[in-house]
């Protein structure tokens, strides 16, 4: 909130006036309570031990919000607009990125990816046939990447996090039949093998990504993705919960991957 003080007039002092009496249970006349709140906000990275990765993530979120505000107010005054009731009007495309394929949809906070897909199909009077696996995709044109959203994933957080080069696309999932057949023949679904791995790190807090690709052995099952130094390792170096992963298909150009 404080970083938007030029827009919302809520600078350190004004925030302290609002939160001081509530957090310290004072009558609003105690200046020391307000001063404490100002210190907590101004020095929160030191007080709450916010590491560089967390800080950069917060700054990226703020940058995305600012860019979206600019886009709403200038570039796309009709395509994307926040209404008073908290809904968000967004342009969604059907199968291809063309003006004739765009649809303006009012998206409440509770709307899921599957609800958005059926909303667009209903508007275009497109019947859903047997084995028509329609999905909502997050598409990044600049990086040539796309991600099928989980059918229960809420759409509004995606809209607030995507950049100017990204958009939502409703299209069929071409690999669904193959995935269903594969899963039906497996008792214990898991995959393993060697992959190239790279972790982004900043240089001296400048936000410049660095790091090289390394060969690592991975094991993927229905619950977790585990990374080992090599095939003979017994203890994983890293482990991720599958339901928390976001998997993009395509090429992130600025990474310059060693393989395709």
TrEMBL record:
Domain Ras-associating residues, every copy: 86-175
Family matches, as InterPro entries: Arf-Rho-GAP_ANK-PH_domain, RA_dom, Rho_GTPase_activation_prot, RhoGAP_dom, Ubiquitin-like_domsf
SUPFAM superfamilies hit by this protein: GTPase activation domain, GAP (SSF48350), Ubiquitin-like (SSF54236)
Taxonomic superkingdom: Eukaryota
Protein name: Arf-GAP with Rho-GAP domain, ANK repeat and PH domain-containing protein 1
Organism of provenance: Characodon lateralis
Domain Rho-GAP: start-end pairs: 1-48
Residues in the signal sequence: none
């Amino acid at each position: 909130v404080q970083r938007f003080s030029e827009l919302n007039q809520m600078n350190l002092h004004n925030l302290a006036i609002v939160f001081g009496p509530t957090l310290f249970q004072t009558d609003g006349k105690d200046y020391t309570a307000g001063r404490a709140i100002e210190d907590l906000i101004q020095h929160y990275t030191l007080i709450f031990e916010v590491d560089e990765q967390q800080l950069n993530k917060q700054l990226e979120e703020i940058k995305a919000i600012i860019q979206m505000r600019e886009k709403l107010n200038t570039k796309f005054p009709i395509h994307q607009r926040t209404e008073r009731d908290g809904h968000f009007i967004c342009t969604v495309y059907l199968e291809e990125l063309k003006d004739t394929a765009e649809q303006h949809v009012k998206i409440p906070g509770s709307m899921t990816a599957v609800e958005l897909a059926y909303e667009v199909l209903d508007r275009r009077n497109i019947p859903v046939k047997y084995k028509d696996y329609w999905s909502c995709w997050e598409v990044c044109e600049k990086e040539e990447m796309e991600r099928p959203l989980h059918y229960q994933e809420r759409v509004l957080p995606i809209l607030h996090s995507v950049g100017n080069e990204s958009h939502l696309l409703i299209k069929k999932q071409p690999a669904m039949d193959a995935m269903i057949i594969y899963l039906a023949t497996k008792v214990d679904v898991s995959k393993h093998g060697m992959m190239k791995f790279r972790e982004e790190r900043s240089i001296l807090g400048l936000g410049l990504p660095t790091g090289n690709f390394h060969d690592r052995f991975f094991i993927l099952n229905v619950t977790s993705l585990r990374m080992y130094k090599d095939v003979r390792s017994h203890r994983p170096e890293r482990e991720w919960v599958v339901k928390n992963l976001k998997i993009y298909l395509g090429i992130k150009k600025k990474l310059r991957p060693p393989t395709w």
